[in-house]
Design goal:
The protein has about 600 residues and is α/β, with parallel strands linked by helices. It has three domains: about 120 residues; about 270 residues, 3-Layer(aba) Sandwich (Rossmann fold); about 110 residues, Helicase, Ruva Protein, domain 3 (Orthogonal Bundle). Helix content is about 40%, strand content about 15%. The protein has 25 helices and 18 strands. The strands form two sheets. It has an eleven-stranded mixed β-sheet with strand order 9-8-18-17-16-10-15-14-11-13-12. Strands 1, 2, 3, 4, 5, 6 and 7 form a seven-stranded antiparallel β-sheet that branches. Strand 1 and strand 2 form a beta hairpin. Helix 4 packs antiparallel against helix 5, helix 9 crosses helix 24 and helix 19 runs parallel beside helix 21. It is elongated and about 110 Å long. The two termini are about 60 Å apart. The relative contact order is 0.11.
Length: about 600
């Protein structure tokens, strides 16, 4: 027993009883209540007026007999803002069993009386008897529990007429789910307090439900776009539900994706977050990085960082033949496929921008390429394909040795001699053995970047076809390759065939108009099951709206959405998405100069 101290009059007082001075001091301080409480509340039988906003509370009165998981999604995804408050309180199982047994006795007595008097059994009573008996048995076996559940909807609008209209629309939505609600007439204040995040039910409009039925009311996910397994792409802007999606699901035609956004909208940030989460699910990720934005992520996950430039030790030989392929690869003519790929690369090298090689030039190159492989001892016989492959310099030598009336060798010379010879005419020194590989092409001249992208993508394509496992290839600023005819043809062909080899092709670009102006761009888009549209400029919104058939609301959203927000299209659904990253992911993905500078200063201070 603890004794309390005595005051001067001998009366016991509490140890922490505040003095009048303390109470006076508290009145002069600011608390959370002062910031949250409204200035005034006007109460009427049918609504409340809180700071000029009309509020009405509805309580769910009739529940549907048959429900499915997340059956409240129609209210969660309602096109007007409303608050749903769900109160779930567990009840004592023995008491529930006793009450159900008593109810069962009553129903059985009514059945016996009707049977003795020759009356037809009541269908409603028979259904009730079966339900009570089934629930009581489940409670006795411990398979279920009983909960007291209350569901309230708090509607807000700017006028009495609009709140009445919102009320009718909510009741219509509930009617479509075989449920109904009633307004909390003369109890609006209690209803409003029941909808606050305090967890207290002042209305008490309860319904007893078993565990299975109560679980179907929990809004874990959005009904629009969520799979049981997959990558967390972000949070729905509309209802804050999680958007979980598996790009390699069998329900989809392919795992390809396109990302369209203006500069600074957060498209690279979104791709970095997705890459980190895909890597945790065992998906190998290859990234062609034109701006050196993925270096920190690659280092943090122990990935392979490959820099393609004249001074780099990393080289890719486009003449390498595919080896060790799958069963269907064994039936292919590897040399013929390599000749076609080389024709595309040489078309980028030798043709003027916006044009292609002529048929005579293609024929001359085809003969020279066959001769180049022949001098290396490689023919169409697969047993010769293990020999060391020639390089671009060998092709140049063949063209010089033969009569070159078309001047192909002269145009090819700059890619053989000097610093460019180290890039395009050296044996391959790159081995894709790690699950996360970044190809950095920042140091390449802008004129040569399409060649670098083509060279890397072609090399990855050869590796992908050796074995089937989930992989993603992300090509940032894909328009640099799409603006060339051969490059556009190569990417569109890869988009069509990627699904056969468990590959997902992600193309990222901010040049939306130019991308969609080409037939190959539309082919890539048509063969992409997922599209992510982030903030657009007024100069590109018309093309995007026409291509994706956006509604007026979606169009305005793309013009005004914040950084990191966008529209996510998949499986026929349009989701307004917000990319949310953990602190660890944000530190790796951010390219904000202010954040990076502040972090560098902190590191310098720590070293001092």
């Amino acid at each position: 027993m603890v004794s309390l101290p005595l005051n001067r009059r001998g009366a016991r007082r509490r140890r922490h009883e505040p003095s009048p001075g303390d109470l006076r001091f508290e009145q002069g301080t600011r608390s959370a209540i002062d910031h949250l409480a409204p200035a005034a509340i006007e109460a009427s039988p049918g609504h409340l007026v809180i700071d000029g906003r009309y509020v009405r509370v509805l309580g769910l009165s009739d529940y549907p007999r048959y429900v499915h998981p997340n059956w409240l999604a129609r209210l969660i995804d309602f096109d007007e803002p409303l608050d749903l408050s769900l109160h779930v309180d567990p009840l004592d199982s023995p008491t529930a069993i006793r009450r159900l047994t008593h109810k069962l006795v009553e129903l059985q007595s009514s059945r016996l009386l009707d049977a003795r008097s020759g009356k037809i059994a009541s269908a409603e009573r028979e259904v009730a008897y079966e339900d009570v008996e089934r629930l009581r048995d489940a409670l006795q076996r411990g398979e279920e529990r009983v909960f007291s559940v209350s569901l309230y909807a708090c509607l807000r609008s700017g006028s009495p007429a609009s709140v009445d209209d919102l009320n009718r629309r909510v009741e219509t939505a509930l009617g479509g789910m075989m449920a109904s609600s009633r307004a909390a007439l003369f109890e609006m204040l209690q209803g409003f307090l029941s909808c606050l995040p305090a967890g207290r039910d002042y209305l008490g409009r309860c319904r007893n439900l078993d565990t299975t039925s109560a679980a179907t009311m929990i809004p874990f996910t959005s009904s629009h776009l969520s799979m049981r397994e997959g990558i967390l792409y972000g949070i729905s802007v509309h209802n804050n539900s999680l958007v979980i999606f598996d790009p390699f699901s069998r329900e989809l035609e392919n795992a390809n994706k396109v990302v369209f956004a203006k500069s600074g909208a957060g498209k690279s940030y979104a791709c970095k977050v997705e890459a980190l989460r895909a890597l945790m699910r065992g998906v190998e990720y290859y990234i062609i990085d034109p701006e050196n934005e993925y270096g920190r992520i690659c280092e943090s996950v122990g990935g392979q960082y490959i820099r393609l430039s004249g001074s780099s030790a990393h080289h890719i030989n486009p003449f390498d033949l595919a080896r060790g392929g799958s069963r269907d690869e064994e039936t292919r003519d590897a040399l013929t496929e390599r000749l076609l790929a080389l024709q595309g690369l040489l078309g980028l090298m030798l043709a003027d921008k916006g044009s292609a090689l002529s048929q005579r030039e293609r024929g001359a190159l085809d003969r020279a390429l066959l001769e180049t492989y022949s001098r290396a001892g490689i023919t169409r016989d697969p047993s010769t394909h293990a020999k060391p492959a020639p390089v671009l310099r060998d092709l140049y030598t063949v063209l010089r040795d033969e009569e070159d009336a078309l001047g192909i060798a002269d145009r090819l010379e700059r890619f053989v001699d000097g610093s460019l010879g180290e890039i395009f005419s050296s044996p391959t020194s790159v081995d894709l053995q790690r699950p996360f590989v970044v190809f950095n092409i920042r140091d390449l001249d802008p004129e040569l970047r399409p060649l670098g992208v083509y060279l890397i993508a072609d090399h990855i394509w050869r590796e992908v076809r050796r074995s089937r496992k989930p992989r993603m290839l992300l090509i940032d600023e894909a328009w640099s390759l799409m603006q060339h005819e051969e490059g556009a043809r190569f990417l569109s062909s890869m988009a069509r065939q990627a699904r056969k080899y468990y590959l997902g092709l992600t193309t990222v670009t901010q040049d939306v108009d130019d991308f969609l102006a080409t037939p190959e761009g539309h082919t890539i888009l048509a063969n992409s099951s997922v599209q992510l549209l982030m903030r657009q400029d007024s100069s590109t919104i018309d093309a995007v709206s026409h291509t994706f058939r956006l509604s007026a609301g979606e169009r305005e959203f793309l013009l005004s959405c914040r950084k990191g927000e966008g529209l996510f299209f998949a499986s026929g659904n349009h989701i307004a998405l917000r990319i949310e990253a953990s602190p660890f992911e944000h530190n790796l993905a951010t390219t904000d100069p202010a954040e990076l500078e502040a972090r560098a200063e902190e590191d310098d201070d720590g070293l001092r």
